[in-house]
Structures are given as structure tokens and as C-alpha cells.
Amino acid sequence: MEVSRVRQAWEAFVQTGEKPPSDVRRIVAASWGRSSAFRIRTDNRKAPLASEAEVHRHRLDNLPLLKAAEAALDRSRLFLGASRAMMVLTDAKGTIIATEGDPRVVDSGRENHLERGGRWSEDVIGTNAIGTALAEGRPIQIHGHEHFCEGVQRWTCAAVPVRHPLDDELLGIIDISGPAEHFNPQSLALAGSIAQEVTASLDRAIRIRHEALLRRFIARRPAWLSDDMLVLDPRGFLVHAAGKPGAGLVEGNRVAAVRSLPIDEWPDVLQRRVPGARTEIVREDGEALGAIVVMARPGRARAATAPAPGAPAIATPREARRIGFDEILGESEIMRRKRDKAARLAASGLPILIEGETGVGKELFARAIHAASRAEGHPFIPVNCGGMPRELIASELFGYAKGAFTGADEKGRTGKIVASDGGTLCLDEIGEMPMELQPYLLRVLEDGEVFPVGAHEGRAVDMRLVSMTNRNLADEVDAGRFRRDLYYRVAAARIQVPPLRARGDDVVLLAGHFARLAATRLGLPAPAIDPRACDLLLRYPWPGNVRELRNMVDTLVVLTKGDRIGPDDLPREFAASAVATPPHVDSADLRAIEKAAVIACLEKTRGNCKEAARLLGIARSTLYVRLAEYGIPRPRQGRG
Questions:
Q1: Which domains does the chain have, with CATH numbers?
Q2: CA separation for the pair 149, 66 (Å, rounded)
Q3: pTM, whole model, 2 decimals?
Q4: Any idea what DSSP says for residue 635?
Q5: Between the N and C ends of the chain, which has fewer C-beta atoms within 10 Å?
Q6: Residues with Cβ < 8 Å from 11, sequence gap 6 or more?
Q7: Where does the signal peptide begin and end (predicted)?
Q8: What is the per-residue pLDDT across 462-486, written as a single tens digit (0 to 9) for each?
């Protein structure tokens, strides 16, 4: 329909209530009708705008969605930078929680509150792509005069709902907006593509959490072999069931009784539904992964049990199982030196920086340092500085005072720094800490006092700081991404944990240990590892380090038939990308092995640098440096 006729139809509708002609799109006419029923003023120019504190709460409540959209937002900053368009991400009620794109358009959007905190549901701003997509539950593009409010008609917007991968619940909206005179019919396709990407990212994150839950279940199953058990994710979805769980509790593929409840309320609710049921919340790095529900079968008395040795513990209010240096396995000379150094530094009380690639076991060292330097019962508090949007790290670390922002806990909330008082604060991925927060951490370390967000008085804290990073922090300092004064504070002492490929026969030692642990947890005989398989293990570059080895061995114990793990039992991709280097190498060969590992991961990911960096356990920027060092051609732009 021509723009002028849309304008005429809109004017007739708002002035006389005349029914729009048939060539006005039906979905637009229906939305105009709803807007009129909501008594929306057509002279509205701005959507309602939430306060900064309320925006903080909206983003916190939608953290999984934000993380899933992070890559798309980063790309939008680059690819929409000169396109006269912007990407908008909203929550399920139409409140904008992120924008990115052409700075001119982003700035122009503030005139109508098309910005963080703007609420664009139909009931407050009338027909618009975000609100109408929410109302209709399907993709929609609204162009120019199709908007109900005249002050918004300078925009053209294309919106697509994002839904939860498991139950199709509407989580938010991906919107591409720009000036009406720059109308692009491909905007809806772009929004749809991004929405699919975000859904896929959510799905991957869910599968990762479900796998972690199952590993915890396997560790705990021997303690309740005669009980019925449910493994549930944070939305109440059934991840696994053992035995015959309580009748009427599971409906379809979820436990409806806990669907909309905070996970900390689950134990009481489920105990009322199934008398005698015991619910244990599973947490990792402070995040609730889900819960294991145990229901004793009739006639069986419940005995107090503990996890098997070496098994990951279920998080409880009490301190997790303490780990000593003797539990950091490895007989290689390099590991002996690192253990001895860490044990000596543990007694010093100095802040320690533990460096090393992802998966090498940095947290094991951190926990052993804690156990050696703090009496039993004192807390060990891990915080992942790279695991949440930068705006939320402040309240997570420092806590917040009563009334700090709308939606805040009425009693305030204790941050991780205060929670670590008397014990150890372990900051993982400290190199990811935003520059603007680094001075506040430095102040805590220098003054021994923490100020929660919104508080006017500080609180004294006495804690041991152990930090971890897979980056070279000295390089980050030189690049201006990490404060030099903070670096010298957190790195008073340093420990470099070696990659698994540098530890020689430790690979076989660890593989056998993990096989025995997995077999014990599952009630199976421990399989031996064939010498030919051991040779392949020694030749593989292990980009994921000890974590990759353990996950692979756990899977092999379950899947291998017979009492021996042979070379044919190893994953096909593992054997195909194994690097043919002598099993015993000295430090002079490590660069060659690292180069081979980089090449193997690039081949495995077909040149996708982002995925290759993830497999190698390094930042993408670090991978680019390695490519230059080794003279490896960088894959073409657009492949990661």
C-alpha cells in the first residue's frame, strides 16, 4: 500500500474511528484497534522510560538472554555501524535491555526512548514492531505511518520474537530499527536470522548446564541406589529420572509445581508435594544449574551418606569439600615444582595470581591454597568475572544496600567480597573485569573495606585473594585494558599451571585415575587403557587440557564395551586430529606442539577462529597473536 494512502487511512481511523480499508494490512488494522482500546494518545512521542536502577534489574532478570545475544550485539556494532540501522533487544514485556548499531541512529532513538529502559508494549505506546510482535506472537515489520503514535512514525522497525528452546515460551524480541526514509525490506530477515542465532545459543547453554547436572547426578547416584531420583533444570524441566519418581509430580517433561518459583523455594514445595522428598540445589560458580530430587522408596530408611572421593560435591550453605595439594595429581617434574611453589606461597598470605590455559586445573590450585592457609569452616567464594554482563558484576561482587534500585531485595544483598570475609575470594577470569570497576576492587584490597552499591558506609573485610586468568595480564596492562596498580596488587605472587601437553606421562596417569573414579560412581568395573590408546593420548595436543581429558574418559567408561579402552574406542575426531609428535618432549618442543594444536583446532573448526580459540582455551585476540608468531595464514574475514 502506498505511503500516502496509509497516512490517509490512519488519519481517518484516529479522527472518526473509520474502519481501515482492506488494503491496510490486517495485522496493522487489528493493532490500531487495540491501541485505540488502550486509549493511547496519538501525539505520544516517547515510550515510558525505566530508571537506571530498574534497567539494571531487567538486565539481571534476563541474564541468559543477554548472554545469548552478546555475539550478535557485538557484530551489530561493527556491521550496522554505518547502515542507518540499530539492533534492539527487549525482554518479554517489551522493555529494551540492550541496543547496538549505527551511533547516529542509536542517538536519534533516545528522542523517542528507543533506548535501554524504554518500554515498547502496545498498551503504552500503541502499534510498533516490538509491541505488535509481542501481542501477535509472530514476526512483524511496521513502517512509517503504520505506527499508531504520530511521533514514532519517523521509524521503520522489524521485530521477531525469541522463544525458549524447550517450551517455546516467549523470552523477548529482536528488533532492527531505522529511519523510515531508509526502509529496508531485508530488515525482517536480518532480525529473524539473529533471533534464530540467539535461540541456538540459548539451546547450547542449556545443553551445557544439563551435562553439568548429569555429571553431578552420576557423582551422587551411588549414595541413593535404592531411591527414586529426578534431575531438574532451573525451569523445572526433567533432565533425567532414575526409578519411578512420585506419581503426579512430573507432567509431560517438567515439574509444574516449581515452574515459576525461585529455585531456593523448591525444597519446601517439593517436600509438601512428596513427603520425605529431599531436594539438593546444584550450583556452579554461584549459578543455580538445577536440582536433584531424591524420593525414598517405601520401607527404606534413609542413611546419611557422603559423595565418593574425588566426586564433585553438591553446593550447600556449608563449605565445599576441602582439597589438599596431595589431590593435585601429577608426577611430572614440572607439576612437582608447581605444587611445591604453591604450597610455599599458601603460607605467605600474599595475593596470588594463577595463570594458565582453560581447563588446566587453576581452581584446584586455588582451593588447595585456601585449604592450606585458612582453617576449616572458613569460606571459599569463587566469582567468574567473565560470566555476566559488565553492569552486573558490581552488585555481584560488592552487593547492594536496601532500596538501591527498584526490584532490589528489601533487605539488600551481601556481595561475594563480604561473603568471603575470613576466607578466600577467588576471582576467575580477572582479566575480564571492566576497567571502571577495577578502582573499586583496588580500594578494597588497599583499605580492607567494601562499599555495597547504594551504601554510604563501608564494611571491613579480611579475606585472602586468589585470582585466575587464561590471559597474559602483563600484556593486558600494556594494552591499557588492565590497571597497572591493580595488577601489582593481585599478582604479588604468580603461579603458572602448565598445559596438559607439557606434562608427559601425567596424561596416562590422569586418564587411569578418571576412569577409576567414573567406574566407581557408576558401579562398573574400571576398564584398563590399552597401550596403543595410551600412545594416542600422549600424542594428542589437548587444547581443552585436563577438563577435556576427564570429560572424554567419563564418556568412554559409559560407552566402552568390555574391560579395556582401545584406540578404536577414542572419538573419531580425536584420533584424526592427534598430532604425531614423540610422546616424550622437552620444553624446546612445546612451541612446535602448540603450533600443531593451533593448526589442528583451525582444521577441526574449518577456520572459525572464535571456535578454535574456545577449544584452545585462549582469547581470540591471543589466537591472532599466535597465528602471527607461527606464520599461520589468518582465515578470511567472516569465518570467525
A1: 35-204 (3.30.450.40), 225-295 (3.30.450), 325-496 (3.40.50.300), 525-630 (no CATH)
A2: 29
A3: 0.54
A4: P
A5: N
A6: none
A7: none
A8: 999 999 999 899 999 998 999 999 9
